[in-house]
Structure to design on (557 residues):
């Protein structure tokens, strides 16, 4: 595939994705394309369906209707929910990364920081302890986790450190697509700012493609190129981040933006 | 468990278990042999002894025992511990089979920890009593998830365990239940065998059967199957070694236990395989402890 074609083929394509929980709507009829190197932010108030959509996109929840296609390294479009389970799990631990809001959901709390970062390498067949450790140290440094803590368990880390460790653990194998659910949620404001800087640096440096769910418009503005605004399970507005935030067209988006600017 | 035969009036089926149960366990064993290293669930029976006594191994032995079999039972390598003696007597009583302490005379050997030092031969069967069959359990408590990991050969976690060992101790400190890969497919826990014995499992001429009573799992390694201990390129698998030979028989290649010899707390290292040590003594071998005593 040439560079030209590569940029025209979406990395991820969502087509009319709907997910309900019994009588409750999760998300409804959502379609969009994510192109290589692009970061899309999904914003909206609590309960608007952001996490539901993200989990469907990442193969963690099966939509009721609709489909999600992922273009793999060979250029084949894989239906995320109909490929075999081994293939889907393989994608999840190689091409994809998932950063959970609560670090404990994304870390092994009884395994050292180094072991946490090394797991994906070992899952991929790395069998040289020295190299694994070197890469773990490198990633702790990149994510600003004190490297002298490499043998400590994450349950002795602060919330911000745990979240940075989770990011290191996810990015160590150079994934092509990163899903993040409220990556800065639950952290103190100053800790959030540092994490955001870090994420922004990594996204730019690695040219990551990412889908970031957040209820925090400031986070969305800093990290994403494009925005999708959700309300009651539906996308009410999409566009370039600055356009949506500076000149919102939808009434709900206007409310959302104004409530942030004038709390 | 009583070893007195006060219950002579009672009629047991041969080897205690009823034929239907034996058939069920044999089916599980056949499946286990067909898929080396794969844990086959089976509907275990209550045995007249507590789980810690090796009920899994006993059920396997009971299901495959024939009247002409010669049974050896070892516990920590010894034929004469309470546990080994009880199990031997149990089968003498319920199956009337011959027993032996000699590895080469046995057709069936039930063991709790060790693999005999004398190489096993074709036609012999080694039955292991297993307390914890699942090697992935320590990091992944969910049974549904460990099953999936086996099915999909997702074994990265096993190396995370070894990584943690090296990070903490500077070397792979796991000495018992050291994980192996069987037939280049399934990861298996040889629990609670010392890693010293792992190389003996590899391409062993005898059939190896594993029974876990509490968790109701059976697995197997057919004769001449590859059994490879997991490791890292820069931290290769190594077996334990000792600075001194067996005090009694002078062997420097067997697995040694540290034992306290007298009230003064004198310690010495002796073969854990009592039959091996006795055979060497009978052949005239002597260790440093014996020379000193003379
Ligand atoms: N497991 C579930 N069972 C039932 N309803 C759920 C479940 N998860 C989410 N919901 C509902 O789906 C809607 C969307 O939730 P969610 O995707 O978590 O929104 P957000 O991430 O934007 O806060 C909410 O009304 C929520 O109550
Ligand atoms: Mg959410
Ligand atoms: Zn000896």
């Amino acid at each position: 595939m040439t560079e030209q074609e590569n940029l025209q083929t979406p990395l991820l394509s969502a087509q009319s994705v709907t997910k309900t929980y019994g009588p409750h709507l999760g998300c409804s009829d959502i379609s969009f394309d994510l192109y290589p190197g692009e970061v899309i932010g999904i914003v909206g108030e609590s309960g608007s369906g952001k996490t539901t959509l993200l989990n469907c996109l990442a193969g963690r929840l099966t939509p009721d209707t609709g489909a999600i296609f992922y273009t793999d390294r060979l250029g084949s479009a894989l239906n995320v929910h109909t490929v075999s389970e081994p293939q889907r799990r393989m994608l999840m631990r190689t091409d994809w990364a998932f950063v959970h809001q609560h670090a404990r959901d994304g870390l092994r709390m009884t395994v050292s920081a180094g072991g946490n970062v090394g797991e994906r390498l070992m899952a991929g067949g790395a069998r040289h302890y020295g190299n694994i450790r070197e890469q773990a140290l490198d990633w702790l440094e990149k994510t600003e986790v004190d490297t002298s803590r490499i043998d400590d368990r994450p349950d002795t880390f602060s919330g911000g450190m745990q979240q940075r460790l989770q990011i290191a653990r996810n990015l160590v194998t150079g994934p092509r697509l990163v899903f993040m659910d409220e990556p800065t949620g639950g952290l103190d404001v100053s800790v959030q700012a540092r994490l955001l800087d870090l994420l922004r640096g990594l996204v730019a440096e690695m040219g990551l493609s990412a889908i970031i769910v957040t209820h925090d418009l400031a986070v969305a503005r800093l990290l994403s190129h494009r925005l999708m605004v959700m309300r009651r399970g539906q996308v009410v507005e999409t566009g370039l981040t600055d356009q949506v935030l500076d000149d919102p067209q939808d009434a709900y988006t206007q409310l959302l933006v104004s409530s942030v600017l004038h709390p | 468990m009583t070893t007195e035969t006060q219950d002579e009036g009672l009629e047991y089926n041969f080897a205690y278990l009823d034929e239907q149960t034996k058939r069920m366990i044999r089916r599980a064993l056949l499946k286990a042999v067909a898929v080396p290293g794969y844990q086959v669930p089976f509907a275990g029976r209550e045995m007249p002894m507590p789980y810690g006594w090796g009920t899994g191994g006993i059920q396997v032995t009971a299901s495959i025992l024939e009247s002409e079999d010669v049974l050896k039972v070892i516990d920590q390598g010894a034929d004469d511990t309470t546990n080994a003696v009880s199990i031997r007597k149990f089968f003498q009583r319920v199956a009337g089979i011959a027993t032996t302490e000699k590895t080469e005379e046995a057709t069936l050997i039930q063991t709790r920890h060790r693999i005999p030092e004398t190489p096993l031969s074709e036609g012999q069967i080694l039955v292991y009593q297993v307390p914890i069959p699942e090697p992935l359990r320590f990091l992944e408590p969910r049974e549904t998830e460990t099953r999936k990991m086996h099915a999909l050969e997702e074994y990265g976690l096993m190396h995370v365990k070894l990584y943690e060992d090296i990070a903490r101790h500077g070397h792979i400190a796991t000495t018992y239940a050291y994980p192996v890969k069987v037939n280049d497919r399934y990861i298996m826990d040889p629990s609670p065998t010392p890693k010293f014995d792992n190389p003996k499992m590899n391409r062993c001429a005898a059939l190896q059967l594993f029974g876990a009573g509490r968790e109701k799992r059976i697995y197997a390694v057919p004769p001449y199957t590859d059994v490879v201990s997991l490791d890292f390129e820069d931290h290769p698998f190594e077996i334990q070694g000792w600075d001194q030979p067996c005090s009694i028989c002078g062997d420097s290649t067997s697995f040694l236990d540290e034992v306290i010899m007298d009230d003064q707390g004198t310690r010495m290292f002796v073969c854990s395989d009592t039959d091996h040590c006795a055979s060497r003594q009978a052949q005239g071998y002597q260790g440093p402890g014996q020379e000193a005593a003379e």
Remarks:
- Chain A has a mean pLDDT of 93.
